[in-house]
Fold this sequence. Notes:
The chain has 12 helices and no strands. It is an all-alpha fold.
Amino acid sequence: MATKRRKLMSLIEQGVIPPEHVSLAVKAAGLHPPPRAWALLIDRLLLWLGGLALACAVLFFVAFNWSDMGRLPRFALVQAALVLAAGIAVWGNTSVLLFRVALTVAFLLVGVLLGLVGQVYQTGADPWQLFFIWALLALPWVWVARFDALWVLWVGLLNLAVWLYISTWGGVLGSVFFDDNAGLWGLVLINLTAQAVWEWGAHRRGWPGRWAICLLALGGGVPMTLLMMGWIAGEGQGGEPIMVMYPLWLAALYGVYRHWRLDLFMLAGGCVSAITVTTLLLVRYVFWETWHAESLLVLAGAVFAMGALSVAWLKRLNAKVAS
């Protein structure tokens, strides 16, 4: 749809399609969805909302009636809902959409069941163990589902488990990469690895979910930028690994998404990160000691100039794509 729209706009701008025929060209290109497409969208939306509502209803029903329900009814209700969702996924898989909705509901109910076990038996486990075991038990279902949204949810669980683990224990094996800001390093490692694997799968195996790759890039790029900003603000020493990792990450981002697979979203994210880090560098090492009223004006001008150059470069790349 986006490619058709871009091509049609290019033809209109070039004058190939006269203004009086624009509405006819839009109709012929099929840019406006027909009523059947709207009905299909509403049908799918209601199915997803119904499945998620049922999963949440099980959780809220048990929580609201906690004092009135015994141990056995709590587990029976959650396990019955879990078996029902898994059964629909196994025996009602004539519809791919129903199969994915049922597995997503079962995925959520596994977390509800683990939370119920921890609450009833007071196991004393750390919070990270709940999310890690949840991710571990749900991995086979996520693998079978082959559903990009469920994979993203699973990676999110893994992110949360690693963040909570490092927040509890303060690092991994005393490595230099995980002494300070260990949680951010964990997010960078998980999300950039998942992004690289997904890019490989999209290129070699035709995996869907371009939006998921962009989300993983944000999950890795934002903590990477925060690590670099923390090093600048804290006057880090020359041996900090972020000094090597951040330029390598920017170079890899440019090389992959400019020359191998052009992606303006990724390049725009790299520009925003570079502008943010450069601005903090200017504040820390140029204006920090001699700060005065005019410094803010100079800093604003620098940010404006870097933003304008980035926008001009991205627009030029976009024009090349459109042509």
